[in-house]
Design a protein that fits this description.
The protein is α+β, with helices and mostly antiparallel strands. 17% of the residues lie in helices and 29% in strands. Strand 3 and strand 4 form a beta hairpin. The longest helix is centred in the N-terminal third of the chain and has 15 residues. The protein is globular, with a radius of gyration of 15 Å. The N and C termini lie far apart (30 Å).
């Protein structure tokens, strides 16, 4: 059975995520097992992207992530990301 949410509800949830991320959020890419809610990541931090401004915008129930970001290649670690934290 699939659960389908109305677009208005998806927009509300997406907007909540954007608001919670705040201004100039970071996307941190890890490998390993995603931790339980609120727990510190147990995997290896592979890379960090710094978003400039808002995390993105909510359109048709989808977050369009702001593509204005910076990174420092010197801080990257080789690996395949398995989860991302905002």
């Amino acid at each position: 059975m699939a659960l389908a949410l109305a677009t208005a509800l998806r927009n509300t949830r997406a907007t909540d995520i954007i608001t919670a991320a705040g201004t100039n959020p970071k996307l941190k890419f890890y490998n390993g097992t995603r931790p339980a809610t609120g727990a510190a990541p147990a995997g290896t931090l592979l890379a960090t992207l710094n978003i400039t401004g808002a995390f993105g915008t909510a359109t048709n129930g989808v977050i369009d992530v702001n593509e204005v970001c910076t990174q420092t290649n010197g801080s990257h670690v080789a690996g395949t990301p398995t989860f991302v934290r905002i």
